[in-house]
Amino acid sequence: MSKRQAFFRGMRRGIPVVLGFIPVGIAYAVMARQAGFTIGQTCGLSLSVFAGASQMMAVGMYSQGATVFAMIVATFLINFRHLIMSTCVYDRMTPTALPLRLLSAFGVTDESFALFTTSGPADRSVWYYLGMNLVMYSSWNVGTLIGAVASDLLPAIVTASLGIALYAMFIGLLLPNVKGNGRLCILILLTAVCNTVLSTVLSSSEALVISTLLCAFVGVFFVDLSRKGARRMDNLSYWILILGMALVTYLPRAIPAALSGRISFPPKVRKFLKLIPYTAMAALICPAVFTVDDTYPWIGLCGALAAGLLAWKKCPVILCVLAAIAVNFVIYLCV
């Protein structure tokens, strides 16, 4: 198979992801605009970071008053799982020149990892992977642009309903993976409780980082993973944020690409790294889901429950997000 054929084959493989990336990209952009980001800043994060969960998390933290440093640290924590994903990707990929490996590393996401590592034996070239990433990257940025431009034109009730999107997305990612694993469910609940308690004595960003790391460390010793969550930013702060997020997102992706499969972790460390996304998303969901609407705290809970019900049934994440938004929209019509 030629490079051109592999590239277009990868593009075709990535097309189904467009249906998920564009709507979530729109939701992220609306949230960013509500938090005080300009259109350029909103699109700039998507262009340079390309990590949906991290971008939505950063926007949510910023709207709650978190510092730029805290947002960068949280981004590093939630994206550190890419170190393991990237290791798997480049261990599977056919031998490739270092510049191409580093270029393709920018596109290591949950979705590209899942698609590439489950592709057939013939689809192991970097060109196949680059074609797949181009479709994903383009759709994410198209969704961001649509949401950023349209946010000023949407009725207030619609933008208010989109406030649940972040938590619905995390729920949609969390529950299908914890279903059937009682110990992991306990860890998720422990993290939520820990973050809620710490939030009463620490800032929300400090509580999130501490509860994420502490509970992931605790989970190493009892969780079995083998079984099958408006200010205006000044230009300096924005550039620090965008450069910091881009750096801490790219590094875990690029290190395995540079080392080309030679990196290895002890079993306990691998388990700790795998648990961080679970504890991070749990900490992001609770208690923040109750702050979606300060006047009616229960509105966020209703949207979260709708997302949780679908996620428990292992429905696609985009359906969980849309269901939560729809529930909140109906509630806003009634209150």
Total number of helices = 16
Q: What is the 3D shape?
A: globular
**How many strands, what sense, and barrel or not for the largest sheet?**
none
The unreliable regions are none
Structural class: mainly alpha
| Multimer state | single chain
The radius of gyration is: 19 Å
Strand content: under 5%
Query: Terminal Cα separation, in Å?
Result: 59 Å
On the 0 to 100 scale, the average pLDDT is 82
**Order of SSEs:** HHHHHHHHHHHHHHHH
Count of individual beta strands: 0
Helicity, as a percent range: over 70%
> What is the count of distinct domains?
1
Structure description:
There is one protein chain. The chain has helices at 3-35, 39-48, 52-63, 68-79, 81-92, 98-105, 110-117, 126-150, 156-161, 165-178, 182-198, 204-219, 235-259, 267-285, 298-312, 317-334. The protein has 335 residues and is mostly helical. It is globular, with a radius of gyration of 19 Å. It has one domain. It starts with a helix and ends with a helix. It is built from 16 helices and no strands.
